[in-house]
Amino acid sequence: MNRPVRVRFAPSPTGPLHIGGVRTALYNYLFARHNGGKMILRIEDTDSQRFVPGAEEYIIESLRWCGIEIDEGVGVGGPHAPYRQSERREIYLKYALQLVENGWAYYAFDTPAELDAIRKEYEQRGETFAYNYAVREKLPTSLSLPQEEVRARIDRGDQWVIRFKMPENETVKMHDLIRGDVEVNTSTLDDKVLYKSVDALPTYHLANIVDDHLMEISHVIRGEEWLPSLPLHYLLYRAFGWEDSQPEFAHLPLLLKPTGGGKLSKRDGDKMGFPVFPLYWVSPTTGETAHGYREDGYFPEAFINMLALLGWNPGTEQEIFSMQELIDAFSLDRVSKSGARFQPEKAKWFNAQYMHHKSDAELAVLYQPILKAHGIEASDEVAGRVAGIMKERATFISDLWDLTSFFFIAPTEYDEKQVRKYWKGDNPAILVRLREVLASIDDFSLENTERIVHAWIEENGYPMGQVMNTLRLALVGAGKGPGMYDVTSFLGKEETLRRIDSLLANLKPAE
Ligand code: GLU
Fold this sequence. Notes:
Layout: E1 6-9, H1 19-34, E2 38-41, H2 55-66, E3 72-73, H3 89-101, E4 105-108, H4 112-124, H5 147-155, E5 161-164, E6 171-176, E7 180-185, E8 193-196, E9 201-202, H6 204-214, E10 219-223, H7 230-240, E11 248-252, E12 255-256, H8 266-272, E13 281-282, E14 289-290, H9 300-308, H10 323-329, E15 340-341, H11 344-356, H12 360-373, H13 380-390, H14 400-408, H15 416-422, H16 427-439, H17 446-460, H18 464-476, H19 484-506
Parallel strand pairs: 1-2, 2-3, 10-11, 12-15
Antiparallel strand pairs: 4-5, 5-8, 6-7, 8-9, 13-14
The structure holds glutamic acid.
């Protein structure tokens, strides 16, 4: 069947979006764009107990920062609006009742307290309680109670839920685009709650299936943690008679800890010093904060590039991909079945690669705020030029200040080790002569200065390294920085001479 590709990212606003969730959104987006389809954002907020204020805004801002565009959904609108499940509540009851009518679901009247008591009783006998075929006709349900009693309880306002009537001992055969064929025996599954009268809201399972159907979703691409729900979802499609338009499913592998064992958690990030969330987050209830890739200085393109390769491989050696290249190359059959281990160093490596490929103009825009914060007024041309000279040694934009501050601020202190090594012997006297040579140069461009100074050093038989490092001490104050003529041409003649004079005047040579 050739149907239009429509995928959805369906997060629950229960806190900041984990990077595993961002990856799910990304794979949905890449799949949609690759196939000329639509990307839908649906907010699944029917669990009012777990709702966290600000989480929805956080999700939307995260996707925006990452460059994952939404075609239909919360914040955008579209033909199936509303896309926030709490605003669709009147839709779901009808579908729950339809299942009761056709025998696929039933009312259950046990209160949470009664269920707790039963659970405890089982525990004491060393057993685990499951609400399933074995007990549903013994508990207060519409399967055990007379019809009038069921009506009476509902009419007088008793609390009820609607549960799915999971068939006994049936094999559900499913297909997953990543995992292949999967089979489960229904006797291992329980009767999940689909709808609760207490808040007149559906649970995840019912709302998710009804909405995927109504929103004409063609492919459900989501985390592996939802694989255990797949048999129920298959049976729900059957129960509604929607098998023909049922979406295809793809369950993505977990993101694993850097050490391999288990799911990547916030605690791993805290322990090892890397973010597990795209943006900075402050919990509105506890005030607890969490690092974000954005605020920690990662470029969104680098972050996305790294995430794309955690669980998917292009089948080639290529590692650097723009969003468009990812869209062109992406396919679900290259998504791996096994978990993808997160490597914090690789995240930095990607950032450095993107850093090195930025133009001076791009760097200028990113670097200007840092320069301003240090009280440096520089033109974009100058900001871009110094950043461009040093970018190869930087991983983050924030590294640039340490690497380039000497361009703007003359040294007032000199690195002790360099002083001991170079500010001795003939070097101070040679620097005095070098100052004269520099003073006589009119064209202070990189090439011209280099040519003249080199010739002069060779003519006099001076040790090149010693002379250059002494000059570096004067201009930079330390043993770091780019090539010396990058520095002289940037500073210009006047400032170069001033810094040499300052070293000569302020530092007594070592014996
Ligand atoms: N609301 C679910 C979540 O938060 C969606 C799962 C699905 O995509 O079906 O992950």
